[in-house]
Design brief:
58% helix, 11% strand, 3-stranded antiparallel sheet, single chain, alpha+beta, 13 helices
Length: 501
């Protein structure tokens, strides 16, 4: 609705000069008024879908009225449609072709009608001021609005992305907490099961105590299984986050496992301290190795070794073949999560079966935290692209008028030289002319008179002799304006010749 009201108002505004310029009481006609108002209405109707069409139609009507393109009735329409073409058109190529076609059509009309070159220059000036300049302003406004719109779109997208990042960070934190809970509780339950298994076969206990120890071992196994099943379900948004277990050193981990009955040997003391994620990954590698040994190789000896060099620390957990018997269930995701944790810390993880049927877990961790990967956000890249597009548009808005002015200047200089050459009389030909000769005799004695004499008597030139029918003025030099040759004729014969300063 707003667009229709705007188009209606524009049409009424553009019809005012047509009504004033085509007033039948002032030499106009009602037919011209009807044609102009109808054409302007059609131009306004198609200006949104085909912006160059109204410019072409208005130019054609103006050229029909005057070859100089400037008319009182349609000048406002030229300015308005030129601006709207620049404002609404996506690409500038069609408009540039249109401007070139108008200039070429004006040149053709000038040649066909044998008009003065100054008429074409007036058309070019009207084209530049009434069409090209508003079109450039429209292009600039379009680019500016595009930049502002892109800025708002990017701001909205950045808000959505920021919310998505916050949600992703919350989910990541929940997953991390759940993983830590699984690792810590699974490790503790494994140690409880190891201790209960040792009590179950202790000959110092009676049958009732051994049965109770067996039930305790089976309860630990069931608890581990249930923990594996439900650990993927995280807390709701309004729930309180569980407290992460307190971190232990590698010495404390091995000591607690040894106190639980696991045969653990720590071959490196003291264990080097690593900062940040590397230190947490080091503890997790040892914890996962001890947990796997308690689950899958009960009774086997476990060796933990930590070595270091200048830039990295290597941790190696080796467990032997366990005694026969039931083991705790495994979800198979512990090593996957451990590999991700080590990778995020900037290290590498390897694991496999040893030659004697045991298991080895080895990781190499950097001593310093890895540098974050620089990544330009998509919003910044798109904003930079929008700025480049605007800069291109502004550059076009600058070089197009400069190119037009330069081309117009060169063209005017060329036409001026051509005009001067057509009005130049050779001094030798002027010297051979005699008073009393006819035009035919003058043509036979010389190459003939130039095609285009100067337009009238030069300023401050002496008065012409009385009684002459016609006096013509020609340049005596190619580039200088003065002096000039004056030839006066009476009845087709040369009556007076002079060099006018």
């Amino acid at each position: 609705m707003r667009e229709r009201l705007f188009d209606l108002g524009l049409w009424l505004l553009l019809c005012v000069p047509v009504l004033l310029g085509s007033d039948p009481n002032d030499g106009g006609s009602w037919a011209g008024v009807v044609v102009g108002v109808t054409l302007l209405g059609g131009c306004v109707a198609v200006s949104r879908r085909w912006p160059p069409v109204p410019v072409a139609v208005t130019v054609a009507v103006s050229l029909w009225s005057t070859p100089e393109l400037f008319t009182a009735s349609y000048s406002l329409a030229l300015i308005a449609f030129g601006y709207l073409a620049g404002r609404r058109q996506e690409r500038a190529r069609a408009a540039l072709w249109l401007f070139g076609a108008v200039a070429a059509a004006g040149l053709v009309l000038t040649v066909v009608t044998h008009a003065s070159p100054g008429q074409w220059f007036t058309l070019l000036l009207s084209l530049a001021l009434a069409i090209v300049a508003p079109w450039l302003i429209g292009r600039y406004v379009r680019q500016y609005d595009r930049l502002v719109r892109s800025g708002w779109e990017l701001a909205d997208r950045m808000e959505r992305e920021q919310a998505a990042v916050a949600d992703r960070e919350r989910l990541r934190e929940r997953s991390r907490i759940a993983g830590d809970m699984h690792d810590s509780l699974g490790h503790d339950l494994a140690l409880i099961a190891v201790r209960a298994g040792a009590l179950e076969v202790d000959p110092a206990l009676g049958p009732a105590q051994q049965d109770a120890a067996g039930e305790l071992r089976r309860a630990a196994a069931d608890a581990t299984a249930r923990l594996r099943d439900i650990i993927g379900v995280l807390r709701e948004d309004d729930a309180v986050a569980p407290t992460t277990p307190a971190g232990e050193t590698v010495e404390e981990l091995t000591a607690r496992a040894r106190a639980s009955g696991l045969a653990v040997t720590l071959t490196t003391t003291p264990v080097p301290t690593l900062p940040g994620m590397s230190g947490l990954a080091l503890r997790r590698v040892v914890q996962e190795g001890l947990t796997n040994a308690a689950k899958h190789a009960p009774g086997a000896a476990v060796s933990v070794a930590v070595t270091e060099d200048g830039t990295s620390v290597r941790v190696r957990v080796v467990s032997g073949r366990g005694s026969a018997g039931a083991t705790l269930p495994s979800g198979g995701t512990g090593l996957v999560g451990l590999d991700e944790r080590v990778r995020l810390a900037g290290g590498t993880l390897a694991h496999g079966v040893t030659g004697d049927g045991g298991f080895v877990l080895e990781a190499v961790l950097p001593r310093s935290a890895p540098a974050p990967l620089p990544a330009a956000p998509r919003s910044a890249r798109e904003l930079d692209r929008a700025r480049r597009e605007v800069r291109k548009g502004l550059a076009r808005a600058i070089w197009i008028p400069l190119a037009l002015l330069a081309g117009l200047g060169l063209l005017m200089a060329g036409v001026a030289l051509w005009t001067q050459a057509r009005s130049y009389l050779e001094p030798e030909d002027y010297a051979r002319m005699r008073v009393g000769q006819s035009l035919a005799e003058i043509t036979e004695l010389s190459d003939g008179l130039p095609d285009h004499p100067l337009d009238g008597r030069p300023q401050r030139a002496p008065a012409e002799p009385p009684g002459m029918d016609e006096c013509r003025y020609y340049r005596s030099t190619m580039l200088a304006a003065i002096p000039v040759y004056r030839l006066c004729f009476v009845d087709g014969h040369l009556a007076d010749k002079a060099e006018v300063p």
